[in-house]
Amino acid sequence: MSQRVRGVIARAKGAPVEVTTIVVPDPGPGEAVVGIQACGVCHTDLHYREGGINDDFPFLLGHEAAGVVESVGAGVTDVAPGDFVVLNWRAVCGNCRACRRGKPWYCFATHNAAQKMTLEDGTELSPALGIGAFVEKTLVAAGQCTKVDPSARPAAVGLLGCGVMAGIGAAINTGGVTRGDSVAVIGCGGVGDGAVAGAALAGATTIIAVDTDDQKLEWARGFGATHTVNARETDVVEAVRELTGGNGADLVIEAVGRPETYRQGFYARDLAGTLVLVGVPTPEMTIELPLLDVFGRGGALKSSWYGDCLPTRDFPMLTALYRQGRLDLDAFVSEEIALDQVEEAFAKMHTGGVLRSVVIF
Fold this sequence. Notes:
By secondary structure, the chain is an alpha/beta fold. It is 27% helix and 26% strand. Strands 3, 5, 6, 9, 10, 17 and 18 form a seven-stranded mixed β-sheet that branches. The chain has a six-stranded parallel β-sheet with strand order 13-12-11-14-15-16, with helices on both faces. Strands 7-2-1-4-8 form a five-stranded mixed β-sheet, with no helix packed on it. Helix 6 links the parallel strand 12 (206-211) and strand 13 (227-230). The longest helix is centred in the middle third of the chain and has 13 residues, at 190-202. The radius of gyration is 20 Å and the shape is globular.
C-alpha cells in the first residue's frame, strides 16, 4: 500500500516552496523506503527551485539526509528494515566501464528508484538528485542507502550525503592532499569548510581559507585553517604565495564555481601544483587562460564529482572519525528547523549567518 506523507516541493521556477502531501509507493525490486530523520538545506536545492538544474517541475526537494530504512523491495540484500543509513545520489552500478576498471567512484551509470513519488492528483515528482528528502519518508534505490553507526547524530552525518562529503573528498580523494602539504581553499561555505577539514585530517601543515565573508573565515579556522584571506581586501594570488614561501600552494581547491575564482586558483598554485574544481558553475560560464601558462605551470587541473567518493567506503569511515571526535560534523549544523521553514532557510543563504540549516523530522 502506498503511504501519504508531508513533503516540500518546488512547483514552478522561482516560486516559494510549499509543504504538501506526497504519495510514496511501496518499494519495488531494488528499492527502499526510508523514514527521514534529518535533511540539510543545500544550495543545490535552491538551484532546483530556481530552475538552474533543469525544468522538470514539480521537484521534491532535499537530498542531504539520514534516516532509518522502513521497508525494502525484492532482491535487496545490502540493507534491511531498521538500518540507520545516510542517503547518497551516486548509487554505483558495478557494471559500467568505470566500475569494471576498479574506479566505481566514477560510475557512469548510477541509478535511482524506478518508481515515482507523486502528488495526490497523480502528478509525478522529480526528486532532487534522485532522492527527494524534504519529506517524512522517501523512496530511493537501495544502493543509495549506506549503513553507518546508528549512534551518530542524524543531523550531522546526514551532511555527508552531499556538501561536506564533496569538500572532504575534493581534498583527500581528488586532490590527494598528504602530510606536510600546503592547501588553499577558495570559498568557505559547507563544501569549502569540508575541504578545510579534509586537508587537516590528511595532515596538511598550511591550510589557507579564502572568502569575502569574515564570519565564514572564522568558521574555517574552526575546521583547521591555519591562515585566512579576505578576498575583498587582499589580492588572493599574492596572499597565497606570501603564505607559502613565495611559491604558491601544493593544492588549491576552488569551491565557488566561478571563472574569476578558478583563475585565482590556477595562479595561486605552486609550479606542478594541483587545482581542483568542486564548486558548480552555471552553463553559460566560460574561462580563458593563456595556453602557454597551462603548459608552463604544469601540474594538474581536476574536477571533483561529489568528492570522488565511494559511499560504502567513505561514509562509514568518516562517521567513525566523527564518533571518535576527530571530525567535527556537528560544527557544520548552524540550526535545526522544521519542514515548513525551508523557504526561510533559502533566504538565509543570501544573507549569511548559517553554514547549514537542517530539517529535523
